[in-house]
Amino acid sequence: MTSPIGTLFSAVLAQCSAGSEFGAVIDREQRRRLLKGLFDNYYADCQQPVIFDTNRQWCSRLPALHDLFPQAKVIACVRNVAWVMDSIERLYRANPYENTKLFVDDAERNTVYSRVDTLAQRNRLVGFAWAALKEAYYGEHADSLLLVDYDLLVRAPEQVLRLIYAFIGEQWFEHDFNNLHYDAPEFDQALGVSGLHRVRPQVTPQARNTVLPPDLFEQYSKLSFWEDGSASTASVIRRNQEQKAVVATA
Fold first, then answer.
1. What is the mean pLDDT of residues 63-69?
2. What stretches of the chain show up as alpha helix (H) in DSSP?
3. How does strand 145-149 pair with strand 74-78?
4. Which of 8, 224, 230, 247 gives the lowest tally of CB atoms within 10 Å of its CB?
C-alpha cells in the first residue's frame, strides 16, 4: 500500500518552486531541509535503522531522493503488465455495485477496453508506475534499483528475499511464507475497490486464465521492457547505465 510521503513531497515542492508566490523566497538549502523534514517527521516514531517507504513516485524522484539520502535504494516488483491489468479487472468485476474511484466517469469505466486503457495512461495507476520505473531503469541512478520478478518471487520466496537482503546490506532472518496477514479494508473501501490490498496467507503461485480479451492481453504483454531476449528468464535484475547484470535466473 502506498505511503503519503510522495504526495506530501510533491505538494511541498510545488509551493517552493517557480510559479508559486513563495518560490523566490525559499532557496535550495531551505527546500532540501523542508523536504527531508517530511521523512524525519513522518518516521519520527520509528526506531528502526532501515525504513521501507512504499510510494510509486520514488522511481521518478531519484535525483532528489539520492541528494537527500545518498544510500537510498529502490526495490521494484515487476510483472507482465497484462497480468497486472487482469488482476485489477478481476477486482473491478468482484465489486459490480460500486463505481470505483479508479475511474472518474462512465467513459472510462464502460468496458474492459476503456478501463484498461485508462489505467495505462501515463498519469494513472498502472501507466504512471510503469513510466516512472522505465525512467529509473534507464536513468543515471539505475545502479541503486533492484527489480524483483513477481512470478519467481511467489515460486521461490526465500531465495528471492535473500537476494533482496544482500542488495540492501541487511542480515537475513527467517520468514514464515505460509502465514501472512495483511489487509487494508478502510483504505480500499474509500477507493471503492474491496480487496485491492488483501494479501493471501500463503506465498504460492496460482494458475488462472485471464479475463482480458485476447487482443488486449497480447497488447499489454509487450510492455515488459525489463526483459531481455538473452535473459528472458531473469528473475531479479539490477540495471546500471552500461549493462544489465543478471543476479538470479529461474
1. 95
2. 5-16, 28-42, 62-68, 81-93, 106-109, 112-119, 125-137, 150-155, 157-168, 185-191, 214-221
3. parallel
4. 230
CB atoms within 10 A of CB 163: 17
Does residue 227 belong to any structural domain of this protein?
yes
What 8-state DSSP symbol labels residue 199? B
Residue 19: pLDDT band by 50, 70, 90 thresholds?
A: confident
Give the whole-angstrom CA distance, residue 238 versus residue 104: 36
Q: Which residue has the cell 511467489?
A: 154
Report which DSSP code applies to 223: T
Identity of residue 127? G
Whether residues 115 and 217 fall in one domain: yes
- Residue type for position 77: C
Grid cell digits, residue 139: 536513468
Q: Are residues 35 and 94 in the same domain?
A: no
Report yes or no: 152 and 160 within 8 Å, Cβ to Cβ. Answer: yes
Percent pLDDT > 70 in the chain is: 91
Is 105 found in the same domain as 28?
no
Q: Which residue has the cell 460500486?
A: 98
Between CA 99 and CA 196 the distance in angstroms is 14
Confidence (pTM): 0.86
